[in-house]
Amino acid sequence: MTTSYLRKATKADLPAILEIIDAAKAYLKEQGINQWQAGYPTNQDIEKDIEQKISYVLMVDGEIAATAALWPDRDVNYDDMLEGSWRGNPEDTYMSIHRIAMSSKFRGQRLSEKMMSGLFTISSELGYNELRIDTHPKNKGMQKVIANNGFEYRGIIDFNDENEVDTTRFAYQLYLN
C-alpha cells in the first residue's frame, strides 16, 4: 500500500524540488508550451518559498513526488483581469496555488488530486475558504487537473513578468464549503 502525505518543504528538499521544476520546464517545452521557459521559477524563487514556509511537497513512500507554493492573503497578479471576473467580495483574502509540479517519475498516477486535497486542507486550517490558481492557455494537462479538483474558470489575467515570454494565463477560483 502506498503511503502519501503533504508537508512543508525544508532546505534539505531543495535539490529534489529543483529537479522536479527543471523536469516540468522541459516537459512544457516538449509540448510546445512557453510557460516557464525564460527562467521562472528561479532557484531563488523556490528558496524564498521554503524560507517563507509556503512551499509544500507531496511525499509518496518517502520520496518527493510533487511540489507547490501556497501563498496566503492577496496576490497582485490577480488584481486586474483582462477578461472575466472573480466571484465574491474583492477585498476578501484567499490562498493562491503557484509553482505546482509533479515529478516525471510519478506523473500519470492521479497524485495531483492528493496534492490539491492537501493544499485545500492546509488552506482551511489556516482560515481561508477561497483558493485561486492559474495556468497557461495551452497547458491542457494542468487545466484538466484544475477542473477535476473543483475550480471554476473565471477569466484571463496577465502577469507583469519580464522573465516570461507569454504572460497570459487562465484564472480559476474555488470556494471550500
From TrEMBL:
Pfam family, one: Acetyltransf_1
Single GO MF annotation: acyltransferase activity, transferring groups other than amino-acyl groups
Domain N-acetyltransferase: 4-177
InterPro entries: Acyl_CoA_acyltransferase, GNAT_dom
Source species, domain of life: Bacteria
Name of this chain's protein: GNAT family N-acetyltransferase
Provenance organism: Pediococcus pentosaceus
Taxonomic lineage of the native organism: Bacteria, Bacillati, Bacillota, Bacilli, Lactobacillales
